[in-house]
Amino acid sequence: MKRLWLAAYRLRIVFRGIFLLLAIATVALALSLLQQEKQLALDAYQTHFDKTQQQLSALLRHPSGQLALLNPGMLNEASTGLHPVILPFAALDFDDQSKVQQAIAMSGCLQQYGENGDLCAGIGNSPWGGAFLYLAGHFNAPALTEHERGERDLSKADRLELTLNVDDQDFHWIAPFEADASKNNAAPVLRGRFTGFLVSDLEAGKSKPYKDFRALVWQQGRCNQPPANGDESQCQRTAFFSVRIAIPQWQAAIYTNRNPAWPPTDLNRLRIHAQIKAANSEQVLLDSDHENRSGIFSLRDLQQHLLAGEKIEIRRLDQQKSYLQLQGDSAQALDQKALLIRLINWLPVEKRIWRLERKEVLNTAAFPVEFSLTGDQRSALQNLTIVAARISWYVAAMLLALLLAWGLLEVNIMRRITLLSKRAKALSSHVKASQGIDQFNLNDLRSADELGVLASCLQDLLRRVREDLEREQIRAAQEKDMWHAVGHEIMSPLQSLLALHQREDDPSLRYLQRMQQALTILYGNASPSEAFQASVLDIAPLVLQQFVSTLIEYAPDAGIADLIWTEPRPAAEQNIWIKADAHSLEDVFSHILNNALRYRLPDTAIEIGLQADERYAVIRIQNRGPRIPEEMIDKIFEYGVSDQAEAGAMGQRGQGLFVAKTYMAKMGGTISVSNLDDGVCFVLTLPRAAAPL
């Protein structure tokens, strides 16, 4: 007992040492992986920082970025009203459609109003371009209705209503559409103008247009979408308008000051309200105060490109104080994982990044600015803490799994092996040894531990198994003697039957010879399957047409009627010689035809067809009837397989197709089966032989 306890203790030391090494390896692997991830994170952050700097620099060089630099106070949020921005151009050619469209599109000042259209309001970046306010955009409307000259009711035409609030002074214009009579407005573009009238003048009975209000309109002649009813009079068409308004206060400041301040200091207080209204109604086609309005690009949009700890600073070179400072999300999550941060900082890497800074000078249309981007490794470590937290869960799970595995091994295996060793030792002492077991020996596995005890017990059990095998061999020999006796008793009357049917034209002779061959094969073998597999066939050249014709002729004698050739039937003069054993091949046909007879539909024939090429001859046997289930296709040629529950009682032991496949293989051929639309087809393939000389 003391020896067994020491053996169990040695194995437990080995297993416990293995689990301890696995735990250490798990922790070491996690630390190594975290160290590699730290280096990769720092390298990736360095690359990401450079790409961010290049991306932000490219955004600020873009016209929309230039617009944001010229308007640092512009926010990317939906505020009430429409406010003008400083455009990166000194002035706009408001009367040239293509130039105005290109300018406002490149500057990025357009604000979208859903599917209704867009608007851009701005001023030039230089006072010498004129103290003008520009307003341009698109809207959708049916064919514009023109204001008739002399008509005092301006609401009968499509119109632009514009309100400005400058220095607490309101200007309100109503500008009806007037077509350009000097142009052909039939197609493809309708051109005209919005003629501005001050509401205050109209109320005072004056009908003279406001001279500093200039607005042009271009409307496409084609519909945006083909009308469903074919009437194009009310279909929506895209129109573009461009407005230039002189602001009296700005003009006075420019003309009275040699170095005027530009942009105007009150630009942020300027409020614009623009509406496009349909003719003969108050329907608003485009409203600058509409809620569904998208903001334009702002410098605050750059913040979304920053990581934690990164900072953007932009200042004009002629000023010391920066007018924009943006910072990425705070790194509060780092403090919450202080232990992981200390662990990550402790891990050595080849290259550390403590602080990065990139500065670049960008030129705008009005003034140069200095763009500065600053970052540090906290951004990389913040993302790494997320990876470290995930790895820590995996490490904890692995250690817990190792602990559970060790506990289960200790309780459910090691303890049971110890008990099994004790009981196996006690059992082995009561087993008596016997001779004749030297062929399979486990003596080399004997040792002082539990496995050695189990090996000794298995050695004793193997002796008992060997005794059982010897008894099985004796039983098999007795069964073989029984087959000898059965074959001997059947052979004598069969010889007498052969003597009574010796004529070649006697149909019974063929079946008696087949019985003799089958008995010869089975005679002296232990089982039918072994007998068929061990049989030796007499393979010789054979004319296939003659064989099949004879088979069809004598088939009714065997109870198989309605056996016919399929067309085209091979010509008699074209003999197909094959290599086969006549009796074995007839057995193959007999088993297949019996199956076809059993399953064919009443009053239907079994068809036999022949084909041949240079190497092989192919025989097809098909019947009309039920199909073979798909799960039985690959099993019907196995020994003892039958689809009938009472096959054994009916004399069908599931060996007919097994015999057919065995004989075909011994003759160098193959047999297969497939389902047809209305039945089953067996295909036999045999190698061709040269005609004997």
UniProtKB/TrEMBL annotation:
Keywords recorded for this protein, A-Z: Coiled coil, Kinase, Membrane, Phosphoprotein, Transferase, Transmembrane, Transmembrane helix
InterPro entries: HATPase_C_sf, HATPase_dom, His_kinase_dom, TCS_sensor_his_kinase
Signal peptide feature range: none
One Pfam entry name: HATPase_c
Recorded coiled-coil stretches: 455-482
Catalytic activity, EC: 2.7.13.3
Domain Histidine kinase: 485-690
Superkingdom of origin: Bacteria
TM helices/strands, residue ranges: 391-413
Record's keyword annotation contains Endoplasmic reticulum: no
Keyword match Coiled coil: yes
Catalytic activity: ATP + protein L-histidine = ADP + protein N-phospho-L-histidine
Group of enzyme by EC: transferase
Protein name in UniProt: histidine kinase
Species of the source: Undibacterium squillarum
